[in-house]
Write a structure and sequence with these properties.
The complex is a heterodimer.
Chain A (H helix, E strand, L loop, with lengths): L16 E7 L4 E4 L1 H7 L3 H4 L11 H6 L10 E8 L5 E12 L5 E10 L4 H14 L3 E6 L4 E4 L1 H5 L18 H13 L3 E5 L16 E9 L6 E10 L1 H19 L6 H12 L6 E6 L1 H4 L13 E10 L16 E4 L4 H8 L3 E4 L3 H8 L2 H10 L3 E9 L2 E10 L8 H38 L10 E8 L8 E9 L5 E11 H20 L4 H22 L11 E9 L4 E7 L5 E3 L5 E3 L17 E5 L5 E5 L1 H4 L6 H13 L5 H12 L8 E8 L7 E6 L5 H16 L5 H18 L4 E7 L2 E8 L19 H8 L2 E7 L2 E9 L4
Antiparallel strand pairs in A: 1-2, 1-5, 3-4, 4-5, 6-7, 6-10, 8-9, 9-10, 11-12, 11-16, 12-13, 14-15, 15-16, 17-26, 18-19, 19-20, 20-21, 21-24, 22-23, 22-25, 25-26, 27-28, 28-29, 29-31, 30-31
Helix pairs in contact in A: 7-8, 7-13, 8-13, 13-14, 14-15, 17-18, 19-20, 20-21
Chain B lengths: L1 H5 L9 E5 L11 H16 L3 E5 L7 H8 L5 E4 L7 H9 L3 E4 L9 E5 L1 H14 L5 E4 L3 H6 L2 H16 L5 E3 L5 H14 L5 E4 L5 H10 L9 E6 L1 H6 L5 E4 L2 H17 L7 E4 L3 E2 L30
Parallel strand pairs in B: 1-2, 1-3, 3-4, 4-5, 5-11, 6-7, 6-8, 8-9, 9-10
Antiparallel strand pairs in B: 10-12
Classes of the chains: A alpha+beta, B alpha/beta.
């Protein structure tokens, strides 16, 4: 065939053709350059001489039948003498050159070298072209025709071609452009032809990934490009390897973008469908979703998993292939591929030809239906394993129309599942930390607000939407003596466990101080001292933790007395409450803000507020009213607006307020405490003034008895009279005027005696022969509880008795 | 009536009690307090199986009183609004007709009575004010007519007030006051004229209280901040005024019940010695009294006399 190369080695296997013209008389009349190259003689040396002189053996030639006489074409082999004397075996081809009258004028003889092996080699070379396992083709620029070897014909390039000579062109436009460029520029090129995505292509098309090497074919003599040679290589494997790599790389960025278990699982499903599988499901062990560390189960047991994510290549949101709904639970028998992969910790390739798969499917009705409906034939189950623990399993499925999974797919699935597992495990760990922190926070906040009659309360605590979530906000409702109640709301600056823990300490401190029944301003002073001490302790303990050096905290402490309907408030840098009066007017309570806790040295001021019955107080933390887009003032205004909207219940009001004021994902945690005041009516409270005269004790008893009769509480009259006479006697004996006696009938019966002396009584242990010291013991024994509180003008001793039911 | 069959045999058989209750208010109207007593007696009597026959008789010659006694239409009589000299009580005692008095006088001691310790109540009111630091305490009594006509409690109240003041070494200043609003305003006028430094008063006159409040407001005295008022009054009424009156209760219901109890006791055992029940309710704390804030300039500046004068002699 054509000369491929002009390089030196070509003569050894390629043929040289020379042309010579010979007259009828056997005299050489023309000598071509090719003849010179072949035989070494120059034209002047040969033209005019007898052609036969060039022959080595004349007889042999004649024997072969060459006669330069007839008008016949003749072909034959001959041995010619080279100018340097060596023998050149050639094939001669004599064509008679006819004149105008049809008689031969001479002969054109083509001389072709035919070395002993050249003929065989050439044939062999043609065979090699024809039988090449790779697709080879040649394009002639002059004839614009293609020569394809059977491998190329059998393939896709020119289907249906039968001969080596084609006018039909390969279908790929890009390929043709490439061929033209090679022909024009004369430089080799490479062309890649990739197959379409497997989801939309049939199985055979998957094998169409090819690389074509193209090179120019030059005429060795002229150097002119006369054609283009191509060789095609199947690059399917290489291509799919690259695609897998791309998928993996994408997995690195797409899976585990959040610290959310479910989201991570969904990301895995979204990535794998449709590129790797037609349907993917991700199931996790239940404990993972709770953030716990999964405990390894027995090996050959049914595995129970919860569906966290699944995705189908079929259009639409509905995932029809799924046998389990999202969030649903399914159990996997030990022989099923998912269970096997969990047990082994390795991915499992299975399919319709696997008896275990068949058995598994057969035993599950909805799964069986799905397998039948969608022609599920190939399945991979890959364990989600991270940091040595197995969290769940991802199942990849190919349905009808897609090729079965291969070993390479299994590796890819394992890798993808591994990436997702790390994401899931991170999310799980985060969930655990967050849950712990929230649990701590919740345990530090009141769960059930204590029963008391002074106010009706509703509360909300919302952790921050982002970050650690927990913070230092708290609220509290503390029942005080005399049916009063303390309402507390506070905020420790910062987030996380440390803020929560500090909050817990402060809340406990407030409760303790409230129990001592300190007035609000005094209580805050004590709390302030405590915070200063805590700060000092923290600094001493952990000099390294410089972030804990300062405790910034605010607190609002209010005491509401349903008898006087007076609310006394003191604030340590906390946002003031809003109040909705029964007549519908809303305002922010005007009180002295006071310094932050932990500042020290500055006084706190108490503000008194007389509230009509049914007033609604709204205490909150700055997380509710302070946001990036507005300041506290505007937030309080909005709080007032939300508070004023008429709603049936406190719980609903809470929700209304949160909805009106909070963004979807609050940046700070929020505490909200609503309290609707009640008032004890005149017929529930009776108070008398007592002269400091021992004789009045009897009157006090009589009065008490009359009052209890009026209340219909004769049952407790005996005990109450004893308590009254004890407390009154004490007040007269040790106290100072004015002395007052008060009975409150609420959920309990409270008996209070106040006097102007500040000395609080002690529960003394009376000795057998002691005359005094028994009174309070008796009171303590007879009542449900007793205590003392300081007032602005002295002290009050109270005793509480439970009332008979009904 | 169940009582007919059960109580046949002692003290007659009418199973009816008489109640003498002359209207005490202005223009012979019944006061809320009186109606509370009538209601209380009726309720207590019904509970004991007795019906009630009412008579507004003020004097012994009142026809309805005579019918009640002369015809023996009732088993016994409860007498209200007792004067110091009361011919109804005289007549009942003379006839030996069973009776019980709400209120008391010398003659009623022969029978049973239930009464409030008005002297003690007035004294208790004074004591309460004194405990709050008040030293200039006036007393507003009932009308001159009532005082002179011999209604016991007006005199008893006055006595109790005076005695308590003297015991505290304070100067008593008692005023009589008509049972109406205008008189209340006038009495405040008089009190503050006599002693502008007055910071409190005790009143038995509930009818004049609104006027007293009004007069105090007119003089720039706010109750209970600048001026304390304490009284003797029935509870619903004391709660209705603003500010609610700190007062010793008149326990009408309790007294009615005790009166009926005494009556029944007397009917069942006529020969037992008569019982006398003297109630002394405490001063109920409401909103009209507060710590004493002396009228500016009226008291000498505090000279820290509360601090003991330690001599330093070492």
């Amino acid at each position: 065939m054509a000369t491929y190369d002009q390089g030196d080695g070509h003569r050894r296997w390629s043929a040289d053709v020379a042309t010579v013209t010979v007259g009828l008389d056997g005299i050489v009349t023309g000598w071509s350059e090719g003849a010179r190259r072949l035989l070494g003689h120059r034209a002047p040396d040969v033209v005019g001489r007898a052609a036969a002189d060039l022959l080595l053996g004349r007889e042999a030639l004649q024997a072969a039948g060459l006669a330069l006489t007839g008008s016949r074409e003749w072909s034959g082999t001959a041995a010619l003498r080279h100018r340097d004397g060596h023998r050149v075996e050639v094939t001669l081809h004599a064509h008679p050159s006819l004149g105008g009258d049809g008689t031969p004028q001479g002969f054109v003889v083509t001389v072709t070298t035919t070395p002993a092996d050249a003929g065989h080699d050439r044939t062999m070379m043609e065979w090699a072209f024809a039988q090449a396992s790779i697709a080879l083709s040649a394009y002639s620029t002059t004839s614009r025709s293609w020569h394809l070897n059977p491998a190329a014909q059998g393939g896709e390039q020119a289907p249906g071609a039968e001969s080596g000579r084609l006018t039909a062109t390969p279908a790929d436009e890009g390929f043709l452009r490439c061929v033209r460029r090679v022909a024009e520029e004369g430089t080799p090129m490479r062309y890649e032809h990739s197959a379409p995505e497997p989801s939309s292509a049939s199985a055979s098309e998957r094998h169409r990934d090819r690389i074509f090497e193209l090179w120019p074919v030059r005429d060795p003599a002229t150097g002119e490009v006369v054609g283009v040679g191509t060789a095609a290589f199947d690059s399917s494997d290489q291509h799919s390897a690259r695609r897998r790599l791309a998928l993996l790389q994408e997995a690195g960025t797409c899976i585990g973008t959040t610290l959310n278990v479910t989201r991570t699982a969904k990301e895995l499903a979204a990535l794998a469908v449709p590129r790797l599988a037609d349907f993917v499901s991700v199931d996790l062990l239940d404990s993972v979703l709770r953030g716990e560390e999964p405990v390894p189960g027995p090996v050959d047991a049914t595995v129970v998993l919860r569906r966290v994510a699944h995705r189908s290549a079929s259009a639409g949101e509905a995932v029809a292939e799924a046998a389990v709904d999202l969030g649903g639970i399914d159990s996997y028998p030990p022989f099923s591929p998912p269970a096997r992969c969990l047990t082994a910790g390795r991915p499992v390739l299975s399919g319709a030809d696997d008896p275990d798969f068949v058995r598994w499917i057969a035993g599950h009705e909805s799964r069986n239906a799905a397998v039948q409906a969608y022609g599920i034939h190939s399945v991979m189950a890959a364990p989600l394993r991270a940091r040595g623990i197995t969290l769940g399993v991802a199942v990849f499925v190919r349905t009808e129309g897609s090729p079965p999974f291969e070993q390479d797919d299994l590796m890819l699935a394992e890798e993808l599942a591994g990436r997702a597992a790390v994401g899931v495990d991170n999310a799980r760990r985060y969930t655990r930390e967050r849950t712990n922190a929230l649990t701590l926070q919740r345990s530090l906040l009141p769960r059930d607000l204590p029963k008391q009659a002074a106010v009706e309360v509703a509360s909300r605590y919302l952790p921050a939407g982002r970050g650690a979530g927990v913070g230092g906000d708290w609220f509290d409702v503390v029942p005080l003596s005399g049916t009063r109640v303390a309402l507390v709301v506070g905020d420790v600056v910062g987030h996380g466990i440390h803020a929560s823990a500090t909050m817990g300490r402060l809340r406990t401190a407030v409760r303790t101080l409230a129990d001592v029944d300190l007035p609000p301003d005094e209580l805050l002073t004590h709390l302030d001292d405590l915070v200063i001490h805590l700060t000092a302790d923290d600094t001493v303990d952990g000099g390294v933790r410089d972030d804990t050096g300062e405790i910034g905290a605010t607190c609002l402490y209010a005491v509401y007395d349903p008898v006087s309907r007076v609310c006394t408030l003191a604030s340590a840098g906390h946002v003031p409450p809003a109040v909705l009066l029964p007549d519908g007017t809303v305002s922010v309570v005007d009180l002295t803000p006071g310094p932050l806790l932990g500042v020290g040295g500055l006084p706190f001021e108490a503000t008194e507020l007389e509230l009509p019955e049914g007033s609604l107080l709204a205490f909150c933390t700055d997380g509710l009213i302070e946001a990036r887009d507005h300041d506290v003032g505007l937030g309080l205004e909005r709080l007032c607006e939300a508070l004023a909207s008429p709603v049936p219940s406190l719980e609903v009001t809470c929700d209304t307020i949160l909805k009106a004021l909070l963004p979807d994902s609050p940046a700070d945690d929020v505490a909200l405490l609503l309290a609707r005041t009640r008032a004890l009516h005149a017929d529930q409270v009776a108070a008398w003034s007592l002269p400091s005269d021992p004789a009045v004790v009897a009157d006090a008893r009589a009065q008490t008895s009359r009052q209890l009769a009026a209340w219909g509480l004769e049952d407790v009259a005996f005990v109450t009279e004893l308590v009254v006479s004890e407390l009154v006697t004490n007040a007269i004996r040790y106290g100072a005027v004015p002395i007052g006696l008060r009975l409150i009938r609420d959920r309990t019966l409270i008996c209070e005696v106040s006097d102007a002396s500040n000395t609080a009584p002690h529960l003394r242990r009376a000795r057998t022969y002691d005359e005094g010291g028994r009174g309070l013991h008796m009171v303590a024994q007879l009542t449900q509880g007793w205590g003392t509180r300081q007032t602005s003008v002295g002290k009050t001793i109270w005793a509480e008795q439970s009332l008979p039911a009904g | 009536m169940a009582g007919h069959t059960r109580d046949e045999g002692f003290g007659g058989a009418t199973h009816t009690l008489g109640l003498l209750y002359p209207p005490a208010g202005r223009g012979r109207a019944y006061t809320t307090m009186q109606l509370a007593f009538v209601g209380g007696v009726a309720e207590a009597a019904t509970a004991q199986g007795y019906d009630l026959l009412l008579s507004p008789g003020e004097r012994y010659d009142d026809p309805s009183f005579l019918r009640m006694i002369g015809d023996r239409r009732v088993d016994g009589v409860i007498v209200m609004e007792i004067r110091r000299e009361d011919d109804r009580v005289e007549r009942l005692a003379e006839e030996g007709f069973p009776f019980v008095a709400i209120g008391r006088n010398q003659r009623a001691d022969a029978a049973g009575w239930v009464d409030l310790d008005f002297a003690g109540l007035a004294g208790g009111c004074v004591q309460h004010l004194a405990d709050l630091g008040h030293t200039r305490i006036a007393f507003v009594n009932r009308s001159e007519r009532l005082f002179d006509s011999g209604y016991g409690f007006a005199r008893l109240g006055d006595e109790g007030y005076t005695e308590a003041m003297k015991k505290l070494l304070l100067t008593p200043r008692a005023y009589l006051c008509g049972d109406d609003l205008a008189s209340g305003e006038q009495v405040v006028e008089r009190i503050l004229l006599d002693d502008p430094a007055t910071t409190s008063l005790v009143t038995l006159n509930e009818a004049a209280l609104e006027g007293v409040y009004r007069g105090l407001t007119r003089h720039g005295r706010s109750v209970p901040r600048d001026f304390s008022v304490v009284g003797v009054a029935a509870s619903p009424w004391a709660e209705q005024v603003t500010p609610a009156l700190t007062a010793a209760e008149i326990p009408a219901k309790e007294m009615s019940r005790v009166a009926v109890d005494l009556m029944i006791q007397r009917l069942r055992s006529p020969d037992s010695p008569p019982r006398h029940v003297l109630l002394k309710p405490l001063v109920t704390l409401r909103a009209s009294t507060g710590r004493c804030r002396p009228v500016p300039g009226s008291e000498p500046e505090a000279d820290f006399s509360d601090f003991p004068d330690f001599g330093i002699d070492f």
